[in-house]
Amino acid sequence: MSVESNWQEIRTNIAEACRNCGRDLKEITVVAVTKYVSVERAREALAAGIMDLGENRMKGFLEKYQAIGDDATWHFIGSLQSRKVKEIIGEVDYIHSLDRKSLAKEINKRAESPVSCYVQVNVSGEESKHGLALDEVEEFIEWLKDYPNVNVVGLMTMAPHVDDEEMLRGTFRKLRAMRDRIRDKHYPHAPCKELSMGMSNDYKLAIEEGATCIRLGSSLVG
To answer: Which of helix, strand or coil describes residue 180?
Structure first.
């Protein structure tokens, strides 16, 4: 299947999810997760009108950035080692995986201007997943006030890969509630208006529960 044909089906699904919860389609950013596909396939996504590309490995990001450059808006969505920050700062537009103080310090040190970051939260508590526990989020974001080059635009999570709709919705609702608490504090360094949640298997539910950014790999680009 071409990216264009996949995109047509996904847009229909997004529109339906938005109707179900009374949201505007324009509120949703779709990130094409291109980690397993070629530069050519990533360019197909751009040609289809999807301008946001996501990578979770340094090698893959650098390869595609060198080929595509600023024609895309770049999201680094994988776990990021502090020592690797210097390789992507100034080139990546969003970091979805801020989850520890050492990483925040390195971003602040290396960046020449504020970097848009999502704080990654392990809502489900799965050992296989990175991220802060829910009860650690507020203290962490408060601590970030002394790091002017870290701008917390929102929260990110990965839901369990299950078919249990209520479990998935519960995960998304918990992240949304935490986002609302942080947003309502009106921190200058953490406007925290965004929710990066929802992937190929659960993005419709995520949208209905408040996602503003969904990350689609297999269903969109393969």
So the answer is: helix
